[in-house]
Design brief:
Elements lengths: L27 H8 L3 H9 L1 H9 L13 H20 L9 H10 L4 H28 L8 H23 L4 H15 L5 H9 L6 H33 L17 H10 L3 E2 L2 E2 L14
Antiparallel strand pairs: 1-2
The protein binds protoporphyrin IX containing FE.
């Protein structure tokens, strides 16, 4: 049975001749040139991805947004830097109690650009923690956690916890004196938590004392578990940002409609009071009522 021909995009109408069609052969190169086909067209014809990209990127944003609105993207950039530098570090790092320290020394002293990549990852972790708190502060003080963005706030809280988990588990990996003792302190602090605290600290220690099994566990959480969860949650976070749009700064007020909209008139008629949001339907404020905010 012959499969039906795939649909030809409208921009290729009339369809160019393909090799073997019509009056003699047309080379594939000519056909591509005739149709003005670019790599993007080629991919789009087979995937229809451009619709999704347009849906994601071509958005109206409210008036008055400014630099504070870049903090989420800055956090995302910091995460991408961490993920990229982490991949290169993992090529040279050995998560073993006897070799972890020397593998970090090897990265710093012998691997080309190793010290730079290690430094970017180490300092980048602090940068990401600072940025995520600043971004959370911006969304909190601008009231962006309110309806309909509550779910995005909750996803953000989970992202915050996961980011702190990354910072905590990563700190042990050099396995030097500082990271060893700091991790003992951190695990003990976790143990003081109500109900789940002791279970959590037992789980993190992975044995009676901090040692080789703890390092393996921290490495697996740091490398596999948490980054996977962060990537999935950032995807959900971004989807909701695109779908719901961004909030206007609190000091930017909605504009008053210049003429009463038909729906407003209908509402006013239904209420029987001839007023909408403290205004008469013709837009004039009613004495003593309403402050002009919609
Ligand atoms: C890995 C961590 C995170 C990344 C990569 C991230 C990324 C972003 C980006 C790019 C935006 C849109 C631009 C902007 O408003 O800045 C955004 C918006 C938002 N984020 Fe995050 N975010 C993260 C963590 C958080 C946290 C910890 C919270 C709060 C607990 C949060 C709550 C929100 C909310 C409520 C919005 C909507 C803002 C609005 O509509 O004005 N995010 N996020």
């Amino acid at each position: 049975m012959r499969l039906p021909a795939p649909p030809v995009p409208r921009k290729l109408n009339p369809a160019p001749k393909r090799p073997g069609q019509g009056n003699g052969p047309v080379s594939a190169r000519d056909a591509a040139g005739e149709a003005g086909t670019t790599v993007m067209d080629w991919v789009d014809e087979r995937t229809s991805l451009s619709g999704g990209v347009r849906w994601m990127l071509f958005r109206k944003v409210p008036k008055g947004i400014y630099w504070f609105y870049t903090l989420g993207s800055a956090t995302l950039f910091a995460f991408i830097v961490q993920a990229t530098t982490g991949v290169f570090l993992a090529m040279f790092y050995t998560p073993s109690a006897t070799q972890a320290y020397s593998s970090i020394a090897h990265i710093n002293n012998e691997v080309p650009l190793g010290q730079l990549v290690h430094g970017m990852h180490k300092w980048g972790s602090s940068v990401m923690v600072i940025l995520i708190f600043l971004h959370m502060g911006r969304t909190f003080f601008f009231g962006a956690y309110k309806y309909p963005r509550e779910l995005n706030w909750v996803i953000g809280v989970v992202l915050l916890i996961l980011t702190m988990t990354m910072a905590f588990t990563g700190y042990l990996l050099p396995f030097d004196q500082r990271s060893f003792w700091a991790s003992i302190v951190g695990i003990n602090i976790n143990g003081t938590g109500p109900v789940v605290g002791p279970y959590l600290s037992d789980f993190l220690r992975a044995g009676p004392e901090l040692g080789a099994t703890t390092l393996a566990r921290f490495y697996s959480i740091h490398m596999l578990l948490v980054p996977g969860a962060i990537i999935a949650l950032i995807g959900a976070h971004m989807y909701l940002v695109v779908k719901l749009g961004t909030t206007a700064p609190p000091w930017v007020r909605a504009e008053k409609p210049k003429v009463a909209a038909p729906v407003a008139q209908l509402d006013a008629g239904a209420n029987g009071n001839g007023r909408v949001n403290g205004h008469r339907v013709d837009g004039a404020p009613v004495d003593g009522e309403g402050n002009g905010a919609l």
